[in-house]
Design a protein that fits this description.
Layout lengths: L1 E3 L7 H7 L1 H13 L5 E5 L14 E6 L2 H10 L4 E4 L5 H4 L5 E7 L7 H14 E10 L21 H5 L4 E8 L14 H14 L8 E9 L6 H5 L3
Parallel strand pairs: 2-3, 2-5, 3-4, 5-6
Antiparallel strand pairs: 1-4, 6-8, 7-8
Length: 231
């Protein structure tokens, strides 16, 4: 099933007030996706952070039809494709994208399928491949068949082994649990504290962070400064 629609405007400021970590994630997405016009959002879900990345043409693909329908109703993408994310090469046999993005997806696949997903994304993309996932295995269970169970864990070193640059996200690992929820209250205070810790410490030390953000540059636009500095 492939639906075309028109993306709706979305306010990052309003969303970031409720979830300060979202601001940091969108900042990394905008930075790494600069210059990418066509984008494939794999496992897009119903409220993909890519709705806050302006410009270009966004295609969302997901294997959970209710989430895809909610995304269409909210206008998060320009096109929507229903299908198994493990079969991207059959869903898009001849199509290529400037960038392929998988946010909070790869941990829901067995390890072997996750490695195959990376290979497929690197084939479909011409400029960037982006992965966002918890740092290591974080137990999480599905609710009402929504495919949210965690089946694997991924470490910064594993992404670096495939030439990804890696940054830490979501602040210190010890502060969050299942579904990346903060362990402490009040939520607003600890959300802001987590964002501050991200900016000052864990972004550059992904091994200490709750989540990791990896970007692989497939073209000649790889920033020289990012190649040389430690991550």
């Amino acid at each position: 099933m492939n639906h075309q629609t028109t993306r709706a405007p979305h306010s990052l400021l309003k969303a970031a007030v409720a979830n300060p970590a979202l601001w940091a994630l969108v900042r990394e997405l905008r930075r790494c996706l600069a210059g990418c016009d066509t984008l494939l959002d794999i496992g897009c879900g119903e409220l993909s952070p890519l709705r806050f990345v302006p410009g270009g043409h966004r295609t969302g693909v997901d294997g959970y039809p209710p989430a895809l329908e909610h995304a269409r109703q909210r206008g998060t993408h320009d096109a929507y494709v229903s299908g198994d994310v493990k079969c991207l090469d059959t869903l898009f046999p001849t199509q290529r994208f400037d960038a392929c993005v998988a946010l909070d997806l790869i941990e829901h696949l067995p390890k072997e399928d996750g490695w195959r997903l990376l290979e497929t994304m690197e084939h479909l993309a011409t400029r960037r491949v982006i992965i966002f996932t918890p740092n290591g295995f974080i137990p999480q269970h599905s609710q009402d068949g929504n495919l949210q169970e965690h089946l694997s864990g991924w470490l910064p070193a594993e992404l670096r082994s495939r030439a990804y640059q890696v940054w830490g996200m979501h602040g210190p690992k010890a502060w969050r649990g299942e579904y990346a929820a903060l362990k402490y209250r009040p939520k607003l205070f600890w959300g802001l504290a987590s964002l501050l810790a991200h900016c000052l410490y864990t972004r550059r030390r992904p091994e200490k962070a709750f989540s990791i953000f990896g970007c692989k540059y497939l073209d000649a636009d790889t920033p020289a400064v990012s190649r040389s500095r430690p991550v």
